[in-house]
Specification:
The protein is an alpha+beta fold. The protein has 2 helices and 5 strands, in the order H-E-E-E-H-E-E. The chain has a 5-stranded antiparallel beta sheet with strand order 1-2-3-5-4, covered by helices on one side. The structure holds adenosine monophosphate. Adenosine monophosphate binds next to loops.
């Protein structure tokens, strides 16, 4: 999508502090970290949020690849305990409307209060 920030990062048009990349998935550090370790995992394909998985097997596999990448990178970065979050919709705090999973760790995380 031409006006999507994370599509531009995935295409290499905007720089990011990349951790991992393959044909389908990209991981990079969040520009405004909320924890000592805070990175984002995105599909390269533009999906606005998790609701766009929509029963499509290709999209489901892509989302699973993202989650596998979250777990693999958390392990590589030495996180024994961490949180994976995906905000869906502005009221949930979503500000970039390209599916992404936050991985946060490196400190004690509070309970999710809502
Ligand atoms: P969300 O609010 O759940 O949509 O998360 C979007 C995240 O993207 C926020 O945590 C931002 O700090 C992060 N972010 C925005 N722009 C960039 C960027 N250029 N590089 C890395 N992270 C970014």
């Amino acid at each position: 999508m031409s006006d999507c920030l994370f599509c531009k990062i995935a295409a290499g048009e905007i720089p990011a502090n990349k951790i991992y990349e393959d044909d389908n998935v990209l991981a990079f550090y969040d520009i405004a970290p909320q924890a000592p370790v805070h990175f984002l995992v995105i599909p390269k394909k533009h999906l606005a949020d998790l609701s766009e998985i929509a029963g499509d097997i290709g999209n489901t596999v892509t989302a699973a690849n993202c989650l596998e990448t979250c777990a693999d990178l958390a392990k590589q970065l030495g996180l024994g305990s961490y949180r994976v979050v995906s905000n869906i919709g502005a009221e949930a705090g979503q500000s970039v409307f390209h599916l992404h999973f936050h991985v946060l760790g490196g400190r004690e995380l509070g309970r999710i209060a809502g």
